[in-house]
Amino acid sequence: MMKTSPQMAIMLVLFSVSPVFAMPLGNNTMAITTPVVQIKDGRFGSPPFDPNLPPVTGQSINAEVNAELAARFAEAAGSASGLLTASQAKNASWGYVADHFAAIDRDHDGYVKFGDVLDFMQGGPAKPKTVQIVK
To answer: What angle do CA 52, 58, 64 make, to 5 degrees?
Structure first.
């Protein structure tokens, strides 16, 4: 049996982002208090609530990820052409696209469009149909 003192508090982390404090009661039982976060200046408190923020949904997450991919593509392509080559992907340190460029470039013309990259990332037609497992 673990002995606890009234001064001892155990911090539990739920989902690796939401710290919650548990305080000892007596007889080795714990009571969970309200969620608490540590603010940059070192204070602790409840997370701020902003009623103006839209709800987080699968669709909103997908839209945000797609926007980030589009920005990364535009930066890597570096021109208004909307075309990305394997060397541009490599020079932009976009290793995943550079490593899979041959699979993304379905028509093998040496460049891809943003839609090609998005299809590949979402498991669409640019993704290879078969996978060989090597033991």
So the answer is: 70
